[in-house]
Write a structure and sequence with these properties.
The protein is globular and about 45 Å long. The chain is α/β, with parallel strands linked by helices and about 140 residues long. It is built from 5 helices and 6 strands; from the N terminus they run βαβαβαβαββα. The protein has a 4-stranded parallel β-sheet, sandwiched between helices. A two-stranded antiparallel ribbon has the order 5-6. Helix 1 links the parallel strand 1 and strand 2. The structure holds riboflavin. The site of riboflavin has 16 residues, from strand 3.
Length: about 140
């Protein structure tokens, strides 16, 4: 049974770091939301500089009364990021906290890969599109 999501509003917060990859994640997420019955006019995009800022950007969007779910998209590449573990841990924790604080689904759509090739494989490549998966997760949670 399909839930009616036509009046639900979803925010997508996109990190600009590794933009080529996060744009693909965004496309995947956007298309999956439309496919799932979310209206184009009910999808609100916001950009933040890097994945680290997804925590606060995601929280700000989740705090908005009209927003029902938030999808956070980013890409942290280990080879380029000496403090990879800190950023990944911080954003995982921050996104968890944003969801629990606001009692809304705040979805973790952050790629954490060893290199760019692995990221491309997961952003519309041979392992699918994790942005799309994040959107399907949001849709499932909206139907909870
Ligand atoms: N942000 C990302 O989303 N992905 C990255 O791979 C990434 N690498 C970074 C590497 C360094 C050395 C620094 C200083 C920042 C990096 N950031 C990355 C940005 C980070 O998420 C955040 O925007 C900045 O640290 C400012 O808070």
């Amino acid at each position: 049974k399909k839930v009616d999501l036509s009046s639900r509003k979803v925010a997508i917060v996109v990190a600009s770091w590794n933009e080529e990859i996060t744009e693909s994640l965004y496309e995947g997420a956007f298309n999956a939301l439309i496919e799932g019955g979310i209206r184009k006019s009910n999808i609100i995009r916001k950009d933040v500089p890097g994945s680290f800022e997804l925590s606060l950007g995601g929280l700000w969007m989740a705090e908005r009364k009209e927003i029902d779910a938030v999808i956070c998209l980013g890409c942290v590449i280990q080879g380029d990021t000496p403090h990879f573990d800190y950023i990944c841990q911080a954003v995982a924790y921050g996104i968890t906290e944003a969801g629990l604080k606001t009692r809304k689904p705040v979805i973790f759509g952050v790629l954490t890969t060893l290199n760019k090739a692995q990221a491309l494989d997961r952003a519309g490549g041979k392992f699918g599109n994790k942005g799309e998966e994040a959107a399907l997760t949001a849709i499932q949670m909206l139907g909870f």
